[in-house]
């Protein structure tokens, strides 16, 4: 790692002695980098952003104006222990995004993978795990200890409570919130309400028509036939278990500690189908 020799660093930026910068890192006016920080090559840190270590960041990341990455966790039990924020490569953190370091209770680290897009004012809490290719739209809120699996989407003003998992290619619609896990491929809207499959996301990801048809059948069995969940899962496995995406869904649900939502909106009416 190179040490602050680039002419791409604005003279008003404040960079602490423990900061290590890769090649061709751009740092804008009045940005603050404090504590033990390692920044990979080709990163862009815009004006007034604040990065606090311990923090590690891969290459090619964009940190927008006023973003705050690596501040201590918002947790009453935090007593100043050394914890971390670790970020992969080629992520975009737009204006005023906030991500906090982990807690000792949660393993000491908040993790963000690669190629994620966090839009304006979105927040990722302490000890969260964000996979690859996820999208958090403006003002989306992720509480502590949550897990976002690859390519999931949280729309504008969506919120998930502590320890919730959001499965691969799942989506929580705008203004939606959830207190339970959202399995892979599922679309939720409103409060704890399932709408259907995230069909747009599945097609954009290149999923085949045959696989989508299998997921449609699985959805009907689990969500529409009002069968107790364990029996519904067993039936879906017996009929569709040869489809990898169906197995992925079933494994996710069976591993869930918070449970999943099966309440639905049907023509404006809230229909409950919970066990």
Automatic annotation (TrEMBL):
Annotated GO CC locations: membrane
A biological process from GO: lipid A biosynthetic process
UniProt cross-references to InterPro entries, sorted A to Z: Acetyltransf_C, Acetyltransf_C_sf, Lipid_A_LpxA, Trimer_LpxA-like_sf
Pfam families found in the cross-reference section: Acetyltransf_11
Keywords: Acyltransferase, Lipid A biosynthesis, Lipid biosynthesis, Lipid metabolism, Transferase
Keyword Mitochondrion: no
GO molecular function: acyl-[acyl-carrier-protein]-UDP-N-acetylglucosamine O-acyltransferase activity
ATP-binding in keyword set: no
Annotated TM spans: none
Domain UDP N-acetylglucosamine O-acyltransferase C-terminal: 181-260
The organism's place on the tree of life at top rank: Bacteria
Gene3D superfamilies linked: Hexapeptide repeat proteins, Udp N-acetylglucosamine O-acyltransferase, C-terminal domain
Enzyme Commission number, as recorded: 2.3.1.129
PANTHER family hit by this protein: ACYL-[ACYL-CARRIER-PROTEIN]--UDP-N-ACETYLGLUCOSAMINE O-ACYLTRANSFERASE (PTHR43480), ACYL-[ACYL-CARRIER-PROTEIN]--UDP-N-ACETYLGLUCOSAMINE O-ACYLTRANSFERASE, MITOCHONDRIAL-RELATED (PTHR43480:SF1)
Entry protein name: Acyl-(Acyl-carrier-protein)--UDP-N-acetylglucosa mineO-acyltransferase
């Amino acid at each position: 790692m190179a040490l602050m020799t680039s002419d791409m660093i604005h003279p008003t930026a404040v960079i602490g002695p423990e900061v290590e910068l890769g090649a061709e890192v751009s740092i804008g006016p009045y940005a603050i980098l404090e504590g033990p920080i390692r920044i990979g090559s080709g990163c862009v840190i815009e004006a007034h952003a604040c990065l606090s270590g311990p923090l590690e960041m891969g290459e090619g990341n964009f940190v927008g104006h006023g973003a705050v990455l690596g501040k201590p966790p918002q947790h009453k039990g935090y007593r100043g222990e050394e914890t971390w924020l670790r970020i992969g490569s080629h992520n975009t953190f737009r204006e005023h995004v906030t991500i906090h370091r982990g807690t000792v209770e949660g393993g000491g680290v908040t993790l963000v993978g690669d190629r994620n897009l966090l839009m304006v004012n979105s927040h990722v809490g302490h000890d969260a795990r964000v996979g690859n290719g996820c999208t958090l739209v403006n003002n989306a809120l992720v509480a502590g200890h949550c897990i976002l699996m690859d390519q999931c989407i949280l729309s504008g003003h969506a919120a998930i409570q502590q320890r919730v998992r959001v499965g691969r290619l799942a989506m929580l619609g705008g203004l939606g919130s959830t207190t339970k896990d959202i399995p892979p491929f599922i679309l939720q809207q409103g409060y704890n309400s399932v709408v259907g499959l995230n069909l747009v996301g599945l097609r954009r990801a290149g999923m085949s028509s045959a696989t989508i048809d299998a997921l449609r059948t699985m959805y009907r069995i689990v969500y529409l036939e009002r069968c107790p969940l364990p029996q519904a899962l067993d039936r879906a496995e017996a009929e569709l278990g040869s489809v990898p995406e169906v197995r992925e869904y079933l494994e996710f649900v069976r591993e869930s500690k918070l449970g999943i939502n099966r309440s639905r909106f049907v023509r404006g009416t809230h229909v409950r189908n919970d066990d």
